[in-house]
Amino acid sequence: MEIIKSETRINFVGMMKPAVILSIAVIIIGIASLIWHGGPNYGIDFAGGTLIQIKFQKETPTDKIRTAFRAIGFEGSIIQDFGPKEVIVRTAESGADPKGLTSRVDDALLAAFGKGAYEVRRVEVVGPKVGRDLTRKALLAIIFSWLGILIYVGVRFEFRYALGGIVALIHDILITITFLSLFDKEFDLNIVAAMLTIIGFSINDTIVVFDRIRENSRKNIKMPLMDIINTSVNQTLSRTILTSLMVLIVLLVLFFLGGAVIHDFTFTLLVGTIAGVYSTVFIASPIVLLFERIKPTGLKRKR
Q1: Using N-to-C axis directions, what is the helix angle for 128-156 and 159-182, rounded to 10°?
Q2: Is-contact 29 182, C-beta < 8 A?
Q3: Does residue 56 sit in the same domain as residue 22?
Q4: Is residue 181 domain-shared with residue 207, that is, in the same domain?
Q5: Adjacent-strand bridge partners of 79
Q6: Is 7 a member of any domain?
Q7: How many structural domains comprise the chain?
Q8: Shared domain check, 256 and 157
Q9: How far apart are CA 266 and CA 250, in angstroms?
Q10: For residue 1, is it within any domain?
């Protein structure tokens, strides 16, 4: 199925500068948002503390819930709606005895709301040391994925292609973090998993374009590299749109119908998928051209 003819001649390379300016502007907004929010909104996985999920039989005022938790020393608890008559309570407090903590929470809720008025669905406790360790490992996972892809693309193609692919992946992650910060989404292990998924999806799309560029370069050695890149991106544009569109349809269904549990995870994938398609077309391939102009490969080709 081909929704866009391979003979299409859109000058994607000519749009490189506006695209780069747009990306830089979005990333700067993201940095400003992070500064404004005092850094990422770390979830319990990274920040440590206690998370309690409670479902009530009827709508319950937030102030009453907060008062109940204040009675057991959970000062400054953050209470968020998690669904119909369901809330998440977060606190920086953490204890070494999760079972004892569960008992304290149950006693406080029983005294405030009575038996049968609520159900404690989960209690998660993460100590500060564990949170720091998870943060370090999450960061290493992303960095090692970049390094692995850099080596793979460098071996399969050339260093300039590897550089273009990595710049595009870093771009995708930064854009995703920007939107997570702007919408004050919680940054936890689910988000890290989503980011690693984005990296895999984006580099797969980029390699398809790179493969076509290499193929066309061998067929048309005298053609200017800019024209080869434009031709290659246009030839793979139909495949890129169809693949991404199918992924986006699934993600939209999950976003609207999947429930609160995977809402932030799906949001991250949505942003990252769109950023990945954008970077494949407007960032990765033009980087190859830019590197060729700085350090030519030695081929007798017009720039």
Answers
A1: 150
A2: yes
A3: no
A4: yes
A5: 89
A6: no
A7: 2
A8: yes
A9: 10
A10: no
Q: Per DSSP, which regions of the chain are E strands?
A: 41-42, 49-56, 78-83, 86-91, 118-126, 186-187
Hey, what's the torsion of the CAs at 69, 71, 75, 78, to 10 degrees? 10
Please check whether residues 121 and 270 belong to one and the same domain. no
What residue numbers bound the domain in which 79 lies? 49-126
Question: Does residue 253 lie within any of the structural domains?
Answer: yes
Percent of the chain having pLDDT more than 70? 91
Q: Can you say how many angstroms the Cα of residue 167 is from the centroid of all Cα atoms in its chain?
A: 16
Q: Which two tokens stand for residue 223?
A: 């053609």
Return the pLDDT at 175: 96
Asked if residue 248 is part of any domain, the answer here is yes
The helix/strand/coil state of 40 is coil
Alpha carbon distance 14, 296 (integer Å):
20
pLDDT mean across residues, the chain: 85
Q: In this structure, what CATH number is given to the domain that contains residue 242?
A: 1.20.1640.10
d(CA 213, CA 149): 18
R_g (Cα) of the chain, nearest Å: 24
Average pLDDT over residues 3-26: 82
Quick one: tokens of 226?
């800019």
Q: Which helix (H) or strand (E) holds 170?
A: helix 159-182
Q: CA neighbours within 13 Å on the CB side: how many for 233?
A: 27
Same-domain pairing of 90 and 202: no
The whole-model pTM stands at: 0.83
Calculate the alpha carbon distances from 103 to 49, 72, 123, 286 in Å: 17, 11, 10, 59
Please work out, in degrees rounded to the nearest 5, the angle formed at the alpha carbon of residue 78 by the alpha carbons of 72 and 84.
105
Give the per-residue pLDDT at 302: 47
